[in-house]
Amino acid sequence: MSGHLRSTTLRFMAEPADQNFGGKVHGGAVMKWIDLAAYACGAGWSGKYCITAYAGGIRFVQPIHVGSIVEINAKVIYTGRTSMHIGISVLAGDPKNPERHLTTHCIVIMVAVDDSGRPSPVPEWVPETEEDIYLRDSAMRLMDMRKQIGEEMQAHVRGYLPKDKR
Ligand SMILES: CC(C)(COP(=O)(O)OP(=O)(O)OC[C@H]1O[C@@H](n2cnc3c(N)ncnc32)[C@H](O)[C@@H]1OP(=O)(O)O)[C@@H](O)C(=O)NCCC(=O)NCCS
Q: Is the distance from CB of 13 to CB of 70 less than 8 angstroms?
């Protein structure tokens, strides 16, 4: 097992097969790329096979045009015992010029698993720069907020059950 690679970038072209009915890149395609980058990043940090436990806070800031160069940046911003919180930013731009702009960002939580599929420990990531401490603190605040959202979601899901089963 190796691991300890903190960040990963996937870089490729947005193809016609990725487009939605409006001619821009399909949101579902972007989410798949995000999941691939998060997996590569989690596997690179942990040195283990990983599964997606959570993906959230996804914000589509700008559309991606077919024919753009797409760059998915994934980096570890917090580690728990078996989980890695991964900050993702998706940049895109015309291949004819060097500028890239932010199109999407989100957070994915990957959990390392052993050969039996059970959660397995990951190396601790310790932030050192001011920027990384900021990202780690933000990941921790989001973790707290997700707990509250989780409670509200459970209440929400009960709304789909028959009255006598809520
Ligand atoms: C991810 C999974 C293995 C976690 O299993 P679990 O029984 O909750 O395991 P644990 O309680 O030991 O939690 C393992 C880690 O996952 C984290 N985790 C579990 N559910 C989570 C959630 N909803 N959001 C964020 N983190 C979560 C825990 O905090 C823990 O992290 P830590 O070890 O760093 O503290 C399990 O929920 C699973 O298999 N989910 C389906 C994954 C999948 O199919 N992904 C593909 C989706 S397309």
A: yes
